[in-house]
Amino acid sequence: MEKKRIGIVGAGISGLLACKYAMEKGFNPIVFEARNSIGGVWSQTIESTKLQTPLSYYRFSDFPWPPSVTETETFPNHNQVMEYLQAYALHFNILPQIRFSSTVIGIEYFSPSNEDSTSSDLWGGNGEPFSANGKWNITVKVTGHPLVMNQVYEVDFVILCIGKYSDLPNIPDFPMNRGPEMFDGKVLHSMEYAAMAGDEASEFIKEKRVTVIGLRKSAVDVAAEVATKNGVGHPCCLVFRRAHWLVPEHLNKFTFRNLNRFSQLMIHRPGEGFFQCLLAFLLSPLLWMFTKMVEMYLKWTCPSIKKYNMVPDHPFLKQIVSFMSLVLPPNFYDRVREGSLILKKSQSFSFCKNGLVLDGEDSVLETDIVIFATGYKSDEKITNIFTSTFFRNCITESSAPFYRECIHPRIPQLAILGYPDSASVLYTTEVKSIWLAHFLAGKFKLPPVKEMEDDVTKWKKCIERFAGDGYKRSCVSVLLQIHVNDQLCRDMGCNPTRKRWFLPEMFAPYGPTDYANLTSPS
Fold first, then answer.
1. How much of the chain, in percent, has pLDDT values that exceed 70?
2. pTM of the model
3. DSSP letters along 377-401, please?
């Protein structure tokens, strides 16, 4: 029987994992990567970027970090991460499967027969990864070669690994005559700043008054880098609407050590029974106490957060559930105290000829460069790749998460990897890649569409209890990652309890190496 063809869009971490595990099951996937290198966001980031996750939790289950990194680093820098990813791709012979400089501009599902698998009670008409008639056409543009016509590839299954934090920047809208068009300086997104080489970026900001908009990871990193390079002579200004808890590296390491089964007993989970619900109710005060102690610790060890109006108005727990936590760059508040970094909280602002007009301030914030570090339009990025209006509406008309965080119940023969946010995104994506490879190999079928839709609705309602208005479908498993992995293991017929005996199973942290050997080459 002819082997089915699998198309993978993107050669970042999720694309490498999807390719590796599909190959282990005997498939010959083809990977389309728009850039000329692997690594996704890691291939194009600012000079000072480091991991926020301790390297022991940011690793492949069957490929350790080299001793040269493990002996000296806890949070490797972006160059070390790229070297690690390149070594992984070489070791597992993934590079020959990748077509670089190949931008996917659209995917289209078609079926030569009259069957409509999108309206069937079963996913794809049969609950299986492949259909006898359904196929996907992937239209690819070869970048850097304008005379080469677009190419169309026919595949049996598509895995989207296009990530969330690239390509489609989110820039706020402004009223007429109050936006960037009124400004004489330069306006760009952090994505464009990250694309500059180190020397080019240094020259771009040299002796310039730079204002960074936002207070997420990219905003804090860019502002800290600019402040370090320009010093007090040309201070960087960080403008933000809402403060977030900024966690130091040592506290972040402590938090990861508590990612165990016992801590997840404190969390209500979707579809829980009476005793699970009762146990979560009885233990939930421990979770509340822990998060309050973290808040008190941060206020006590860093009095600057109160002095500079950086105390958030939301609890630490809500920030975790909404995946808004970020690690404080080294010497961040030292830059603030010396005057090379200025913090300004403002609900709104507008542009004028020589800078920004902040809400509640009479004077103009004079600046030469404005860098928006305001995130990306991740859902729109996924939506735009579909040519079908129906499939686009499947993404935009519901905020429910995906089934097992990678399957949309109404989009056949397609999976989305790398979409969910996680404190340990590499290894959680790896477990989903293993699950997907088992599915592609016919080891199990998906439940009926209605059952999958009921499942994701339960997840949505469950997490909304914690997150409130901070709910995002990409963050449903942040507090319940072990539970999600348990579900994936059961689907594959693997034992979800990965430790050798009860005490470590309950109280030792779960990490990448616990999920090694879930699969083997067929």
1. 98
2. 0.93
3. -HHHHHHHTB--HHHHHHHHS----
